[in-house]
Amino acid sequence: MPSTDLFKLLLSAFKRLTTAITGPFRMMIVRVQRMFNVNIITAKLIAPLTKKVKSLITLRPQSRADYYSIGRYWVYKKLFLTLILALCAGVFLYFIMFAPKLPAQPAQPAAVRTSVTFAYDDMKLSDFTGVANIQAADGRTVFTGEIDGGVCSGSGVLYTRDGKLLYEGEFDRNQYNGKGVQYYADGAVRYEGEFADNLYSGAGKLYDGRGAIIYDGTFRAGLYDGEGKLYGESGLLLYEGAFVKGEYHGAGVSYYSDGVVRYKGEFFGGKPQGTGTLYSAAGKELYTGPMHGGEINYRALINATLAEVEEAFTETPKVYYDDRDSCFVFEQAGVILSTDCRVRVDVWEKPRSVEEQASEYYYLPDGTVYQPPLVQEGIQGMSAGRPATPAKLSGGSALFSPMAWFVPDDAPSSSSSRDEDATMEDLMNDLIERMDELANAAGNPPESSASEDEPPAADVPQQPDGETGMPDFVEKNISLYFEIDKDVWQSEAELDKSKVLVNKVTVMRPGEPIEEVEPYDDSLPPSIEDCVAIDFARQQQPTVFSNILFEMDKQNKLFVRLKNISYAERIVRRCYDWDGMTYRYCYQLDNRDAVMYYSIES
């Protein structure tokens, strides 16, 4: 047998022998480890407890032994124990999750053990350096700590005359300097952080008497200064960001009392100023743009374009209008904007039947006349889907109305048959006569009635079911148009809103009159903006402006028509001309000190 094989045989025999000897010991070690294994111990403890709980919640009695006998009453044991357990769990959850937290009482610092004691007026104290106690005139210790040349310098503890803890931390020249903790009279922590010459300076936390945090951030000369967080009484954030001399100043975020973001952006002197984003109480973004004095910079909206305004305000404005004026209302932001471009809203009703389509024309905003294509056999002799000659009013204005007019094919154009000075009444009478003539002939129209340019009846395009064949603006129920020039209208979809300017801003809340200039009174009749502001004021106080009467036709969520405004009445205003703008503050008749709303215009 080779020596190599012999060595392997001996090695194998040695391993087997070692295993046989150490095996029992290994098993013993494993058993010991299992005895002290946390998971195994927990499982053994939990298993019977779980079984017991399951048995408790199995509310099914088996025998009389499952009941307690109390006089004439029998109480099921498991039910009784379950109710006790539920009550204890409820109390536990209440104190953990809902009960107000009790302020943590700070541990009282152990006095430095020293036998060296000086009276506060001891002359020897001025030459002492080391650790000592200093006593007041009544013999009570008011300071314990390090002293250098008779003054407190280093670590120490300061007490009030009645023995209550006032401060513990670092001293320098008898003043709080460095890190320390200041306490209320009842022992609750008032401030913990850095000090300089007895004032909060540096990083620190300020608490109220209940132990709730007020401020967490940096201080300078005892005031909030630098980055920090300010909290309300409920413990929710009121503001986080930059401070200067105790006021919000710089970039920051303010919150409503329930913790919802109120404003995010730049602050100046404690108020939003600069560029920022304003939010509603529900947390919805309302406005992003210039701010001033804690509110929207309304002056900056004057001469802003409608495109810029719609980009700044996130909500869709509601349009209020009458026959002469219009305005855009951002209800949640409380702002009414008037533009230099008059607005008109028209309601277009679809014809109810094919016969009505064949007998109705629509004057489009550009002045052309439109008739839907004919789809009914036997109705001939009328133009089939082609524009009629544009009809113009006196002064060259396009007839802009949802009214339907019937115009025959052989009607001459306005330029050749009607004088430019024709009145509206003449035009309407002429059109009505033509409607009557063609209506009488519509039952059996002669073949010669069709013009040479009119396609034969067989070529009239047929409309699929459910289609009216009218242009898009007629398909819509409501259309918004802007007067881009004298009697020249353009639809909102085609309008270049960068050319429409804001010329007046009305704020639907009280404002502070300007003190720099002398006011003057005016009593202008109510404008459409006044009616909107008064309507919102009446939602809060139904009796305000009782002398101003008007009606509102709220067609839908976006368009409101005002009617029957009482122009005979007046609104009491106090006006201020300041910095190129006119400010008009509107008051109640019987209270010249109560500003209800105000406006700004250039």
From TrEMBL:
The keyword Transmembrane helix applies. Residues 441-472 are annotated as: Disordered. InterPro entries: MORN. Keywords: Membrane, Repeat, Transmembrane, Transmembrane helix. It comes from the Bacteria. The chain crosses the membrane at residues 79-99. Pfam families: MORN. PANTHER family: MORN REPEAT-CONTAINING PROTEIN 1, PHOSPHATIDYLINOSITOL-4-PHOSPHATE 5-KINASE RELATED. This is MORN repeat protein. It comes from Ligaoa zhengdingensis. The lineage of its organism: Bacteria, Bacillati, Bacillota, Clostridia, Eubacteriales.
